[in-house]
Every structure is written in C-alpha cells, then in structure tokens.
Write a structure and sequence with these properties.
315 residues, alpha/beta, Elongation Factor Tu (Ef-tu), domain 3, Rossmann fold, Ubiquitin-like (UB roll), five-stranded parallel sheet, five-stranded mixed sheet, 6 helices, 18 strands
C-alpha cells in the first residue's frame, strides 16, 4: 500500500502572477507516466506531501507542469515551493491520480475556475479543444493581476471560448447563477477553486443532475474532528485483521497503530488518496471529496467516523 515515488528534476520556474508560479518537472531518468486532463500529483516538499494539479497535457515523455499559489497562512508547502525550490533541484513526486475527469459522453462542457483553481481546468480546455468538443471556460479572479495563465488563454486557439470575471471590474462580470441556467441541456459542469467559490457553484448548479456536476476542492469545508461513535471496531476484510478505534483516536490513527499504512496525502478529506470501499456498517463522512452516490460504498479514511459499532473495510 506504499505509494510509488518518481524522481524528477525541476527544469523551469516562471512567474504567472505576484503570488503564482509555474513549475516544470522532468523525469530524472526515463519517461514520466501518462495522465489525462484533471489529474494531480503529490510533490514531496520539505514539510510533507502536497497536491498540485497538472495544467499541461501529456505529450510523449514530456514534462509535468503545475501552478502553485504561495499561501502565507497555509500549511507550508506552497511557501517551500516558492522560497526554496530552484531550477535544477531534484524532487520526488507521486504518479498522477485523477479524480476530476472529463465526461466523455457530454454534449457540452462548462468549465469554471476560481483563482488558482484554473490549473486543472487549463488542461481540460486544452484536451477538449484537441478533441473538437464543445466547451466554454469562465475564469473568476479578484483582478486581472490575479489571473494566472491570462496571456496563454488570450493567445490560445480556443481564446473565443474564454470569459473572465474580475471582482474589481465592471466590464468583466459574470453572473454565476445566470451562466449555469443558460447552459444547453446535457451540459456537464466542472469547477475548481476555494471553498467560497465552490459553495456558490454548488448553489448555481443545484438544479442540474448531480452526476453532471464535477468538482475539485482545495480545502475541507468543515473541521476534520472525530465523527460518530467515540469507539468502534473496524474489520479489514482482505487481511482478516480487526482494529479497535478507541476514544480520542481517529480511524486513520487506529489503522496505523495496528501496522496498516494506507496511502494518504492531504489528510483533510480533499485529495481522495485514502478513499476506500466499505462493505458493511454505517460510516459518518467528514470529507469534501466524495459525492452522495460515492458515499454509499466509499469513505475517506483520514476523516471518517462510524455510526455503527462495526465497520467492514475492503482492506
């Protein structure tokens, strides 16, 4: 259950805005694995693994490109990337994971990005253009100066599919509710951005089928405190182990204490790396990742509790 790590070299760093930089990562040896638009990687920084979306498209053995916003009050990963990393540095990353895929059957795609949420959405726009698919992209930012990839979008062959909303501009305004209501039937919506933006998107798309709305969040919407019963038993179906989750312990802490080390990354219920099937029992979910349908059979180990005395996991 140990995550495979890749050795890469930081071959280029360049400025997008005063707060955002792009980082290009190239395989130190061999080629990097292929990925699809919407994928992200973990970069193992000096303060732990952090998740960053890939904003380019896979091309042969070409590089991975991520955009990182420096968050002064964050958990330290973005500060480490901005303040410590230099071209030529060697880093370790995970293989790409994709929990934010384009729906191949969609007749029309509406891409919405808030701030640094543009990173996976950039790759989606490029992929849809290559496929000849119908789409539009709407970027929401505080101002022109805060809009990452602005020049690239303005000069892209799909520039006429892009609209901008800047909070400080009367010329560049987009009403999110009206935007979503005006979309053609069978549109699939994709949104990525900070918590407030994502809440607004959920409200604006509330009248559309849930399986037509796809999202990726950057932060948990609620504190990841222990949920459900104070104590419960976890049965691991494949290994036959039984683990007791004691008062004051999280599910993940109990598993680790029993020698079980599942893949984890953000440990906030955002990235999906620890999502696991459960076979019986009634979990209480504390993540910001799974949708209601997925929660019928899956949970995020880092922030799930249990309403039942026994929970059986597919581990």
């Amino acid at each position: 259950m140990t995550q495979k790590l890749l050795d890469v070299t930081l071959t280029r760093v360049w400025r997008q805005t005063a707060e955002i930089r792009s980082f290009e990562l190239t395989a130190t040896e061999g080629a990097l694995p292929a990925f699809e638009a919407g994928a992200h990687i973990d970069i193992h920084t000096g303060v732990g693994a952090r998740q960053y979306s890939l904003c380019n498209l896979h091309a042969g053995n070409g590089p991975y490109v991520v955009g990182v916003k420096r968050e002064p009050d964050g958990r330290g990963g973005s500060r480490w990337m901005h303040d410590t990393c230099r071209e030529g540095d060697r880093l370790q990353i995970s293989t790409p994971r994709n929990n934010f895929r384009l729906a191949p059957q969609a007749a029309h795609h509406c891409l919405m990005a808030g701030g640094i949420g543009i990173t996976p959405v950039m790759a989606m726009a490029k992929a849809l253009w290559q496929r000849g698919a119908r789409f539009e992209l709407v970027c929401f930012a505080r101002s022109r100066a805060h809009a990452a990839f602005f020049e690239e979008m303005q000069t892209a062959p799909w520039a006429d599919r892009v609209r901008f909303h800047f909070d400080d501009s009367t010329e560049h305004r987009v009403n999110l509710d009206a935007l979503c209501a005006a979309q053609p039937a069978h549109t699939h919506f994709y949104a990525c951005g900070p918590a407030g933006f994502m809440a607004a998107v959920r409200q604006a798309t509330g009248g559309h089928p849930p399986d037509h709305v796809h999202e990726e969040s950057f932060s948990a919407t609620a504190p990841v405190d222990k949920l459900g019963r104070s104590t419960f038993t976890v049965e691991l179906a494949r290994s036959g182990k039984t683990v007791r989750v004691e008062e004051g312990q999280s599910l993940l802490q109990a598993l680790r204490g029993a020698g079980v080390n599942p893949d984890t990354s953000c440990e906030m219920g955002v990235c999906g790396s620890c999502v696991t099937r459960y076979l019986s029992g009634s979990p209480e979910h504390g993540d910001s990742f799974l949708n209601p349908k997925e929660r019928l059979s899956e949970l995020a180990l880092c922030c799930a509790g249990s309403l039942s005395e026994r929970l059986v996991l597919d581990l």
